[in-house]
Write a structure and sequence with these properties.
The protein is mainly alpha-helical. The protein is 60% helix and 3% strand. The strands form 2 sheets. A 3-stranded antiparallel β-sheet has the order 2-1-5.
């Protein structure tokens, strides 16, 4: 127990100036990727402000520069080192699956990356590995730059997509709130109209109330359909200007083939099941207790299907049941050995 306490104390103490984090809670530890020795920020300023200097750790001797120091993120410095190495190697070996003719070659490429990371992290053949890394970078410099430029463009398009999605969401909420306010004002006018009719009409009050309820029911159904149509139009406009659409387009050959997934996966065209009738229209969704008879019994999902926020976002119960059945039936009737012989 005493040794554990001493180790914990050393973790929070600068090994150079012996400053304790308990007495200086604002103290920050910095590490340099050259050796990953932990030094407090004050010692870094004191030792390296005038220029490069040897690492103050005994028997290290590596020349360090102040601008290379960074704040320690992970408590375990081995993890800190591996993350930095992966980032460095990944910036050079930056190809993706689409850059390879088949999955086997891409997996070999990934295995090579893992070998490099493992050697550099564990100090195995470091000089030779770094020399090979430098040679690869020099030989493929143009490819690396082009790939980084494409990735930067994709990242920029992703930000645009996220912004567009947020604007779409806000526009849907704005329209929904506006229609709710209009409906609230309309209901107030209808209540006043009902009171006036009950005071001046010879018809029974029950009949007048029933007539108004029928009119309100029809109007609510029309309003829900109207809201759905507006949402569909907004989504269609969004899809036409979707900045990520170009990344989802894949070239197909004359046989209309699709990329291989084990046991065909979700690309199987002919389903092995038939979907029961699920309430689709607004009226059916609202009256699921009757329209879902003989279909799937899931009060929770049908409860969500009635939620205005879910409806406004385009969520439908059909998607839930289709996915559940796809996962349940995926791979049925597939001969594994036959799959291997065709696609290996």
């Amino acid at each position: 127990m005493l040794q554990v306490a001493e180790d914990d104390q050393l973790k929070d103490m600068c090994p150079i100036c012996k400053t304790d984090k308990y007495l200086s809670p604002n103290m920050k530890f910095l590490v340099n990727p050259e050796c990953y020795h932990k030094i407090c920020e004050s010692c870094v300023d004191r030792i390296f402000s005038l220029g490069p200097a040897p690492c103050p750790y005994p028997k290290c001797g590596k020349i360090l520069r102040k601008n290379k120091f960074k704040q320690q993120i992970f408590e375990n410095l081995v993890i800190e080192k591996e993350i930095d190495i992966r980032r460095k190697v990944g910036a050079i070996y930056n190809k993706t699956e689409e850059d390879f003719p088949n999955l086997k070659e891409f997996n070999s490429y990934l295995e090579n990356i893992e070998d490099i990371v493992f050697k550099l992290t564990n100090g195995i053949d470091v000089e030779q590995t770094e020399a090979e890394l430098t040679q690869y970078e020099q030989e493929h410099r143009i490819e690396i730059i082009e790939k980084n430029m494409r990735q930067s463009q994709k990242d920029a398009d992703l930000i645009k997509y996220q912004d567009a999605m947020e604007r779409l969401k806000q526009e849907k909420l704005k329209i929904q709130k506006k229609m709710e306010l209009e409906d609230l004002e309309f209901n107030k006018l209808q209540q006043q109209d009902l009171l006036d009719r009950m005071a001046n009409s010879s018809m029974p009050s029950e009949e007048l109330i029933k007539q108004q309820q029928n009119q309100l029911t029809k109007r609510n159904s029309q309003r829900k359909r109207q809201l759905q149509q507006i949402n569909n139009q907004l989504e269609q406009q969004f899809n036409q200007s979707n900045p990520l659409a170009k990344y989802n387009v894949t070239d197909q050959d004359e046989s209309n083939s699709t990329p291989f997934t084990p046991f065909q996966g979700d690309r199987e065209v002919h389903k092995k099941y038939e979907l029961l009738h699920i309430p689709q229209t607004i009226d059916e969704v609202v009256d699921t207790e009757n329209t879902a008879t003989g279909s799937y019994h899931d009060p929770y999902i049908y409860g969500l299907a009635k939620n205005k926020e879910y409806l406004g976002a385009g969520w439908r119960a059909t998607n839930v049941f289709e996915r559940a059945l796809d996962e349940a039936f995926m791979g049925l009737g597939c001969n594994i050995e036959a799959e291997k012989s065709i696609h290996v």
